[in-house]
Sequence to fold (70 residues):
Amino acid sequence: MARINRKKPFRPRCKYCRTNKFVVPIVYGARVSEELLEKEQKDEIVLGGVARSVDAPNWHCKGCGWEFLR
Ligand SMILES: [Zn+2]
Fold:
């Protein structure tokens, strides 16, 4: 029986690139930890700085630069 891997992080699809391959979560916060910086360098996340508003986008596509809220 196939097991569902729930540990695989969910990523929404970019509507322009039609893939989620380049989509990374945007992490907001005034304080940036070493861990977050490391993740950004590995292209796993994008640092968004201090959130501008409650509806700030939380996904960023590195393929086309589109940022969106899901
Ligand atoms: Zn894209």
Residues 23-68 form one domain. Residues 14, 16-17, 22, 61, 63-64, 66 surround zinc ion (CB under 6 Å). The first helix runs from residue 34 to 41. The helical segments are 34-41.
